[in-house]
Amino acid sequence: MNILRKTWCRTYQGAFHIAQPLLPYKDPVVKNSINDIPEILRTNNINKVVFVTDKGLVAAGLAKRIEDVLSSAGISFTTYSDTVPNPTIENVEAVREIYKSANAQGFISLGGGSAMDCAKAAAARIAKPNKQIPKMRGILKVHKKLPLIIAIPTTAGTGSEATVTTVITDSKKNYKYPISDFCLIPPYAIHDYTLTTGLPQKMTSTTGMDALTHAVEAYIGRSLNKTSAANAEEATMLIHKYLYRAYTNGNDAEARQNMLRASFCAGLAFSMSYVGYIHAVAHSLGGKYGTPHGLANSILMPIILREYGECVYPKLARLARKSGVIAEGHSDEETAKLFIDWIQEMNDKMNIPRVIDDIREEDIPEMAAYADAEANPTYPVPRLMDKKELERLYYLGKTGNAEN
Ligand SMILES: NC(=O)c1ccc[n+]([C@@H]2O[C@H](COP(=O)([O-])OP(=O)(O)OC[C@H]3O[C@@H](n4cnc5c(N)ncnc54)[C@H](O)[C@@H]3O)[C@@H](O)[C@H]2O)c1
Ligand SMILES: [Fe+2]
After folding, report:
1. Which DSSP state fits 26?
2. Which ligand 1 atom sits nearest the alpha carbon of residue 86?
3. For strand 188-190 and strand 138-139, is the pairing parallel, antiparallel, or unpaired?
4. pLDDT 10s digits, 132-162
5. Does pTM surpass 0.70?
6. What residue owns the CA closest to ligand 1's atom 13?
7. Test site for ligand 1: of 91, 120, 133, 155, most ligand atoms within 8 A of the Cβ
């Protein structure tokens, strides 16, 4: 990246970093059971909601569990279950229409990041009826109080129930992008591990590694603060302790509940301190090919961390030691490299591939341009890369890093 653009990026990021203590972050209130839903709604004088979920959760019988709770409490609801992975503007607009025609007063979302993000974006459209989704792309473009959202994660994962972000795909352009604003933090989240015990192994592994990517990218970025560091360290510690346990035994209640906590902490960490190029590249792949978000991040994380090289060693080493992943007694460089090796081992033992087959060479310039537009100047990444430099990350993702 040329020096002028570098200066602009770092100045922009520095301004946000300085302003950070003044920004209106508000952690969601977290409850541990879906049986808490009626009480939350009563407290907020709400008796009519739109329930946003997806077909997989209907098939798994989990959507019915929420509907039963609502019916027993006499709360009227309309269910929308057509959310697709990498949710689209069409999904969001359909939910908005239902909300309007039902005269609803709030949202309940059940699912992974896709259903939760769909409800968040629909709530943004309700608050801003004259602003289309593409105009909300980027940061601080919504800026208005949203209707109530109760976010119920069924993957552990995205942490969307805690974050300032919703990620939406423009299916006409195969373009996926984040929308971030403080009002998008759901006021309520429910961490009920019984909703996650049936999560298939493949989803457990990749969504867990997505949470790790949030913690790592927030940590190595330049906008880390005390709070986000503590959250990223806790998330990494919990993932180290519980992800493989949840993967090998889906019914391990302690592991599942702690993975929900890990995902939440990692979400809080990156809400404050951003993600980085791993996510920007993963989003472009999700938009172009529908590559699952967690899968893309899992594969890209060790590759891109190695590509960053020595600029990430001190911070990665600190995260590795603080989270207990790597014992004391090694240099920063050794510790950071051991930490990256641990990530690769986790991927390998959970059968996550080492390359992203979806990537086609002819698409790389366009996707790199999207990643550039998403990340620069917003993400305070450890080393800045322009579009040309980002293209290399796609080649590495396609072929695997030689050092792997
Ligand atoms: N808003 C944020 O802060 C944020 C952060 C990271 C990622 N994201 C976004 O979230 C999306 C990915 O979310 P995800 O990885 O959680 O997956 P997802 O929501 O796309 O779900 C993937 C599949 O898993 C199924 N599933 C989910 N939970 C299940 C369960 N308990 N049992 C059985 N099947 C279940 C779903 O039905 C779906 O078919 C992407 O669009 C990504 O960009 C958002
Ligand atoms: Fe993510």
Report:
1. -
2. 41
3. unpaired
4. 999 999 999 999 999 999 999 999 999 999 9
5. yes
6. 113
7. 155
